[in-house]
Amino acid sequence: MKLYTAKTLELALDEASKELNVPVENLIYNVVEEKKTLFTKKVTIGVSETADIIEYAESYVRDVIHDCC
Predict the structure, then answer these.
(1) CA distances (Å), origin 1, targets 7, 30, 33, 35, 67
(2) How far apart are alpha carbons 7 and 42 in whole angstroms?
(3) What is the rounded distance in angstroms from the CA atom of residue 54 to the CA atom of residue 6?
(4) Class assignment of domain 2-68?
(5) Which of 17, 28, 25 lies closest to 52 in space, CA to CA?
(6) Residues 6 or more apart from 9 whose CB is under 8 A from it?
(7) Phi and psi at residue 37, to the nearest 5°
(8) Residue 48 and residue 30: Cα distance in Å, rounded?
(9) Sign of CA dihedral 7, 12, 13, 14
(10) Chain segment 47-60, per-residue pLDDT in tens
(11) Within a 10 A sphere around the Cβ of 30, how many other Cβ atoms?
């Protein structure tokens, strides 16, 4: 998971989209931190790449099958 920080969620998503070369609508993300003060606003998101999720799922299935048999 990679972290991206920007003034708004949209800017953080745009930054992640450009760096990972993935359309914004295909990003899998969660808001890690959102800070608002009198003068500033900051959002940090964690973005998972599809390959990371597939790798995790394959590993999980292998472990379940191994433990089962």
Answers:
(1) 20, 10, 14, 20, 27
(2) 5
(3) 28
(4) alpha beta
(5) 28
(6) 31, 43, 45
(7) -120, -175
(8) 9
(9) positive
(10) 987 777 888 899 99
(11) 9
Q: Which residue has the tokens 């599809």?
A: 50
For residue 34, give both structure tokens.
Answer: 């959102």
Residue 3 and residue 45 in contact, taking contact as beta carbons nearer than 8 Å = yes
Q: State how far the alpha carbon of 25 is from the alpha carbons of 6, 11, 58, in Å.
A: 18, 14, 24
pLDDT in tens, 8-32: 999 999 999 999 998 998 889 999 9
Q: What are phi and psi of 4, to 5 degrees?
A: -135, 135
Residue 58 to residue 24: CA distance in whole angstroms: 25
